[in-house]
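Example record used in the benchmark description.
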Amino acid sequence: MAKQITQQTFDDVVLENIKEFEMSVEDAIEDAVQQFEAQGIDLSLIVCDPGLYGGDEGIAVHPVVRAIENLARAVDSGQTDQAEEFLQTIHAECDVDLARRCLAGKHHAYPVLIKALRSFKSNSSLLTGTLSALCSLSNGQPDVLDSDGISLLIQFLKECKDEDVIELTVRLIRLTCIKHEQNRQSYVKAGLVQALIETLDDHKKSAKIVKEVSFALRVLTFDDDVRVPFGQAHENAKIIVLEGHALKALLEICKEYTEDKGIQGELFSTLGKLVVRDEFCKEVMDLGGLDLILKSFQQNVKDKGIVRQALFVLKALAGNDDIKDAIVKAGGMELILYALVQHQSHSSVAEIGCATIAMLTLRKPDHCVRVMENSGHEVILQAMKIHIDKEGVLKQGCMALRNIVARATEYCAPILESGAESLINQARKYKSCDDEAKAALRDLGCHVELKELWTGEKGSLVQ
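Model output (structure tokens):
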């Protein structure tokens, strides 16, 4: 692990270079950087701005640190005339980069801003300014959050009526959940799910709040914190659906925003993250969700964003065999193939499109017929050819081809005639694609060398 230093240590070396060696500010910084990097020190969280060292005071002046100190005094004294200016400085500085956010965090920005939140409850302008500053501070460093902040933010959701305040509160909750499993669990235990669903119901006419709440619900289902061996993503999705009745709420809102592509895409993404059980998939179909998704997909088939999110949720729903049949019966396979052709230059659409076809054709020979009747194998191979350097596309393409021929060997010949073997062999150069590529080659009847990963040896077991 790389060694690190404090901002103060770096500043001292820069100032020493300026005073003792009469270097220019730029040269002083460059020399300090070279010194520390030669020692193997990570400077990614150090602010190296020449503008900080130009004062006559002989010290480094960090605007964000000074603004935090000034805000703390203003809150303690009740003199809030300049509070908005201090908040804007903190917000602007934290938006520059992670180094400034970390510097602010180390100088107690979080407790100062939480104290300001409590003090400015009755002042809408200062309240939104404080929440904006907290959002900027927390972006990329969710560790700043504590139990006091969790309680306060959920209280804001339940009590505040101002839409700007609610939007910023939900955004702050979302930012403090990304890549932080403990924060997610603490929020859920504190009743966040119900608070978000109630907020969604109370403010369903506000597009910005709907979008933020949908995103926040989705973040609760992430498994992105490398510091924990097992997350609670699946459990959180169950809580959101079973206790929050989120599927019905989200689908009802989908019906109100049929003309808003941004909201539709956001809601589809969240639905795709929530249908983690077979009965949840059925519930979506029973509520008319499948028809709604397919209709939106068809109407917006030339919009890359909607297409990608619609495919994402269709793939998730297709985990249920009855829904697979319903999708194909409704013309979903033809729609997916058309969308892949329309957006063939976009690797993200190609990947999720091939993955959806793979899911729809799994254990379903009748669905494979629909793919081949519409030259779907050529669409898949074309996607692999265009994105020959994209592992995700190649992997999902191999899975789709394998599923098509697994129970319908009569399709091996036309697929091979279209150049599948060469493309699949090219995919094998990527380690992440090798297993899927070998499975596809095997089921297509091609020669493939299968290696034993390990071989047991005769002998007694040592007790």
